[in-house]
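worker-03 picked up job from queue 'complexes'. Input manifest follows; three sequence lines, order preserved.
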Amino acid sequence: MKMKFHQDADTVSEYSQLSAWKSASTGDRLNVAYGLAVVLVVVVSYVLGAFGWLPHDPEAMDLDTMMADPLTDGYLLGTDFMGRDILTRLILGIQAYFLPGLLAVFIALVLGSLLGVLSGYWRRRFETLVTYFANLIDSLPRMVLMLLVIAAFRPGIYTIMVVFGITTAPTIAMLVKGKVMMLRERNFIESAIALGLSPGVIIFKHILWYNCRALLLIQATIGMAEAVLIETSLSYLGFGVQEPTPSWGNMVQAGANYLLQGNFWPSTAPAIAIMLTVLGFHLLGDGLNNILEGRQNR
Amino acid sequence: MTESLHIRPPLLRVENLRTYFYSQVKRAFARSVDGVDLDVERGETLGIVGESGSGKSVTMLSAVGLVTAGPGVITGKVTFHDEAPLDLLQGLDSNVEIKHRNGRIMHIAKDNQAWQKQADRNLRGVRGGKISMIFQNPRAALNPFETVGKQIAESVRLHTGMKSAVQAKERALYWLEQVHIDSPRLRYDNHPYGLSGGMSQRAMIAMALAAEPRMLIADEPTTGLDATIQARIVDLLDDLKSRLGMTMVLISHDIGVISRLSNRIAVMYGGRVMETGPSAEVLDESADGHPYTRALLASTPRRENITASGHLPAIEGDVLDTINVPCGCRFRERCQRINDTVRTRCETIEPELFEITPGRRIRCWLYSPQ
Amino acid sequence: MKRATWMAAASVLSQELVTTAALLLGVTLVVFLILYLAPGDPFAALLGGRNLSGAERDAAFEALGIPTTWYGQYLTWIAHVLQGDFGISMRSGQPVAREIFSSGVKTLFLTVGSLIITLAIAVPVAAFSAMQPSSLRARAGTLLVYLFSALPTFWLGYMLIYFFTRKLGLFPILSATDETQEYGWLYALLPVVLLGLGNGALSEIVRYLREEIARVMSEEYVRTSRAKGASIWRHAYKEALLLPVSQIIAAKMPFVLGGAIIVEQVFNWPGLGRIAWQAALDRDYPVIMAITLLAAIVVRIGSFLHRTVYVAVNPRASQQ
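worker-03 finished. Artifact:
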């Protein structure tokens, strides 16, 4: 395959006057575009689901049209093995992870930033402690911890997502700490203090907003992708949303037997939904990473 | 274009070498090396001098295929006259498609894998064995995970007939002695981080010479070392030169180092050679010379250059932007010797390397034959 | 290695051991805390097997010699655990330790096997992406890796089963617990492959490896090895392969263990994952606590091994 280099005009503009978006590669732009499209679809679907503006009743069983292929008869994505409209159930399935996922991401970012700043800024007091807690949380595999919590509390999805958020916080803390250390090394922090800025301003405005916001945004996309996978995995295992309320995970599980007999669609439709969504968040994060962070490193 | 006074062809001949780097951010080509011709004769030391960004390092790195930073293309001809002449850039052009417009390169399509493969094929056996290279920053340039001795021994095993571990070790120790490192046996088992800057540079020189190459390229070997250590390394190179009769290309921005070690000097600016000639003549401020060279010599911190008012006559202006290369002479915006006779030509046409005496060339309209 | 460096390395590693022990202690506290805060009374169950309340409970505790304070209970539990006594499963009435051991081996097989597969895919893709980013191999490989990382593991598992049993007719549809099948050993590969492909971290692993390889390849000492005419991989493999791979194994072990739960569910694989799931369903506290502890121990072992590799490879590491 050939690499192509093209010089735009007869006179070339000076230096990096091109914005981050313009100087990004096509691949990155496509990734971000796709990711944003996915986010849009998810948000719209969430709203539709929340208000109940759905094409069909999710629990209505049309016994005449079972296992229908897509585009049959007013069922855009077909029906499942009980004659229920798949599209409706897919849209509704977003309810299961959207808000809980946002909660998880919020907790992870807040807790992670807090710990990261503590261990980076007031190193002497907090570094060992924070590192200890971060390693502690990291020692527990997420799924196993979930099962433990489920066994103990039989919690709702929001509680589960809070726990999930806590388990993701260490990664963010370490990344934020890394940034703080870098700023410290470049004497930004020292200069800021010398200029008389208060710690609050330094931390919130300079460290977090100016230097960490790209990082946090990207971690948010990764976190949402993870949240989708966790929620669907748990509901697949039977622990999240229960039938007949749809979740993409329990839809795959319910259709499993039919899949093994050759009727793919009831299980595959939600699986594709999961894949497209997770891929969207991943690519969004990747593309943003290259565009935003790559720029800083130049 | 070269008239060599020697009967044998030069050990290395670089013809019209161009190395362009593509910047994704600016969507443009940086013309790091923009048509360079050089000859390195056997047994001599060619000093290449210039500011940072003049393309002096990139020239030699391109010649031996060590340019890996970022996307870019290398074109031209580099002939290494070993037993038989070897074109080191052979076949690379077939993997590259270049489109020009108004003398500017607009579009390049490059088959990177094939290009790399061809480059590696051309240079196998040459790199290390026939042409050795030492770099700036020796502690970073040596493998931090291995002892220094093993790395030298590797050179021995790869390029000389000695394959056994014992023989290679003995040879490595021999070379460590040759570079006057203290306690060679001890240093053999050190890792690079345990050596000082000067010692690791000696070790790197030992590693390069252990392969018994025909030619040594030294890319800023003294930059980054303490001043006293610099002097010692220069002494070492001088000593090795005379004892071994090495052919060497010395790249440096330090005129003192260049003047001490070179037989001939090439002055580079903005990716082009501005002046070549025997070092005595090039460095002679009272004789003819390129305005850039004169300005460079006048600006080095020496007692003679510090005028009565205490100012050092620095060269006005900024280093050339290799993306927006001006038409005409590259140096004209900073040249102090432009006069009305040459001004129009300086601004429109780039001068060639005019030969004012055999072996002495200057790229300046002030010295054109007319 | 020389004696001096060996001693220095040993001291660094013994520090690691102390940290590991401290972390595991913290884990036990967390696990205990979660159970203590749970509604109901897990500790009567934990140590006795019955569910009592109030005065009856206090009396029964005293009779059994169980402390009534939380720290007393914690210490008693720890004491038991350190002797290998993880209590009795509420579901089966059997000692937890025995159940865990036999199933643990099966899950170990899954885990190790899947790591091999993950690396077998990730390393080449990362290497191609780093060295020849515009090549077809690199782009196709990266695309596939991203797709697989986004696909839900459970669905992929069912598709694999369908494909292999129905279409290829290779394995009988009997469950994996029947070990007397002719192709039994091949069938055992499926969950390993699934976990290797579908542990969700594949794209992250490839991305990390690719960045490391690219970074190392642009290091100055790699350029020197090229200039020497030496093999660049021989010089770069330590920093570009060994260290990142051991880092990945240590860091992604939690993911793999979590993924095992899903995979074992799909294939009805009688490993720890399945048992954990059952325990969560039954609220079988002793079992789930034991498995959590065990998981944490495995993760920390992975971490410790990584530190060992790091110290062994890096001559400077011992100079703390």
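worker-03 released lock.
Chain C touches chain A through 63 residues (CB under 8 Å).
Chain C has a mean pLDDT of 85.
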